[in-house]
Every structure is written in C-alpha cells, then in structure tokens.
C-alpha cells in the first residue's frame, strides 16, 4: 500500500482486517444515532482539554474547529452541542441520495447542532457574525477536480485538499482548534482538543492546512484502522488536474 511503504504485506493485511472490523462497528453506531440519548452519548464521548476552547469563549471569541473522518466522527459532532458552549455549525457535503441525506440531517441535528452545506458556509458566517459560534470542518474531504487549488504530501502521496478552513480562518481571524478523536473501547471515545493557531493573521500561506493534515497523519500512523479508508481520497491525479 502506498500509504505505508515501510510495512510488509502481513502488516497491511492486519490493518485491512482491523479497518473492516471498525467499519462494521461504525455502521452499527451510526444506526444507533437514531435512539441514543443525551445522557448516554455524554458517557460515550468525552472531551478533554476544553480549557483551550473555554478561554476563547470567555473572551467573546468565536472559534473554528476541524477534524477528520477518524474513529466515530459522527458521534463526536453529535456530542459537540452537549459539551461546548458556542452554537455549533458543522460544515458538510450533502449526500446525493435524498433519502439518506434527510435521515442523516435529522440525526445529526437532534441535539442542537446546525449542519450547513459547504456552499452556504460564507453566507452563514456573515449572518451570524455578531453571535458567539463555532464552525466545524471535516478537513479531509476530497475537493471536486476542477476546484483543486492545493496539493500536499499526505500518507506518502500527493493529495489534493480543501482550503475552506484556512480561507475562513484568514477572513475572520478566529482561533482554530483540532478535535483529535481516539478509540477507547467498543462504543466509547475521547476527543482531545489541540490548538492549531490562536491568531491566523500571523500564519504563513497553507500553514493552517498543513498543520491540520499533519495532526491527522500522525493519528493515522499511530492507529491506521480508524480512518475511513473506503473513501477515494486519491481519485484525482496532479496530471489530471493540470490538464
């Protein structure tokens, strides 16, 4: 596998088997979103280092947050509104199947989160600029081919990435937090908050994007089975984009 050139075939097969075990658990837990209560969810998803966020809230600062498709990000996003003070807006890419999209939207917003389609991000930022909010991005989604603006090395491959988080950070100068989710045991997770930057205006071009992917890459290298490998992250080639 290109992502792990230093691993032998036995190690790759072990990762693959562990991923499918995790993926099966993920499907079951996703279905459970329909019935899980607030109390049960708070027992199953614990946030650490919340003082990194609370200090900004006390100063009246809105926040940007990001994560990846790692562990059970759906439960993590669902628990945000029960754990953190600011009104949270989760940026998402709508599912083409309208039936599934409606079901997911209903489940994802059941505890107060607001899900915003990517195309509506700037409009919602403008309409809530006088409110204390937190906008959350799943930063490892694949951009549409003709919209690719930046490639970076990720898991030993040239990878096209979205720049939405960085663009919003520079426009609003909001502090940026990464939610690092980790598997504890079946049905239980912890989320560590890690600061990417407190002042985006001091960063260099692509620094925020690179830092967010470095965090994710380190998580994957440590426990590769918990990333969503079934998504086609490398379906675009740089040659295709150049043409």
Q: Helices and strands in order, then pairings?
A:
Blueprint: H1 9-32, H2 38-44, E1 45-48, H3 51-58, E2 63-67, H4 73-83, E3 87-92, H5 98-108, E4 114-117, H6 121-127, E5 133-138, E6 151-154, E7 157-160, H7 164-172, E8 176-185, E9 188-197, H8 207-222, H9 238-242
Parallel strand pairs: 1-9, 2-5, 2-8, 3-4, 3-5
Antiparallel strand pairs: 6-7, 8-9
> How would you classify the quaternary structure?
single chain
Tell me the helix content.
40-55%
Low-confidence stretches: none
**Percent range for β-strand residues:** 15-25%
Radius of gyration (Å): 18 Å
What's the total count of β strands? 9
Strand order of the largest sheet: 1-9-8-2-5-3-4
- How far is the first residue's CA from the last residue's CA? 27 Å
Helix/strand order:
HHEHEHEHEHEEEHEEHH
Characteristic terms for this protein:
single chain; seven-stranded mixed sheet; two-stranded antiparallel sheet; alpha/beta
What do these coordinates show?
The structure is a single chain. The protein is of the alpha/beta class. It has nine helices and nine strands. It has helices spanning 9-32, 38-44, 51-58, 73-83, 98-108, 121-127, 164-172, 207-222, 238-242; strands at residues 45-48, 63-67, 87-92, 114-117, 133-138, 151-154, 157-160, 176-185, 188-197. Strand 8 (176-185) and strand 9 (188-197) form a beta hairpin. The model has no long low-confidence stretch (mean pLDDT 92).
Give a summary of the structure in a few sentences.
The chain is an alpha/beta fold and 243 residues long. Helices cover 40% and strands 22% of the residues. It contains nine helices and nine strands.
